[in-house]
Amino acid sequence: MGNPGSRPGLAPRTRPGFACCYLLALLALASACYIQNCPIGGKRSALDMDVRKCLPCGPGSKGRCFGPSICCGEELGCYVGTAETLRCQEESYLPSPCQSGQKPCGSGGRCAASGICCSSDGCGLDPACDQEPIFS
């Protein structure tokens, strides 16, 4: 017979739940982040490299992603949680961090459009983002 408690003919198997958890953990470590919400010591340390622009979005791709559901452009203003922002969800699957906007504003945000400051969490009015009049 065999050892008590063993079943002949069955090879040891790995648990499918363990493999699934391992893959999810690996995906979480490898996923991209917006510069504003990168953890310190994580992808934020990649700031020594060139940071790419976030994906284009919105009508005519005239905006840039500022978060997973935020698309802003100077000509467009900002879209939050609309169909125009669906492309921004792809950013989570890209391996390198990105940054949109030129000027820092608010609490970890960047100027997204005239008078609007956005971070990956949301947008708000900010006078630091007001543009100077072109004709004065």
TrEMBL record:
Keywords: Amidation, Cleavage on pair of basic residues, Disulfide bond, Secreted, Signal, Vasoactive, Vasoconstrictor. SMART domains: NH. One of its GO terms (molecular function) is neurohypophyseal hormone activity. This is Oxytocin-neurophysin 1-like. One of its GO terms (cellular component) is extracellular region. The gene is OXT. Interacts with vasopressin receptors V1bR/AVPR1B (Ki=85 pM), V1aR/AVPR1A (Ki=0.6 nM) and V2R/AVPR2 (Ki=4.9 nM). Interacts with oxytocin receptor (OXTR) (Ki=110 nM). Disulfide bonds join 33-38, 54-98, 57-71, 65-88, 72-78, 105-117, 111-129, 118-123. Residues 1-32 form the signal peptide. It is found in: Secreted. The keyword Secreted applies.
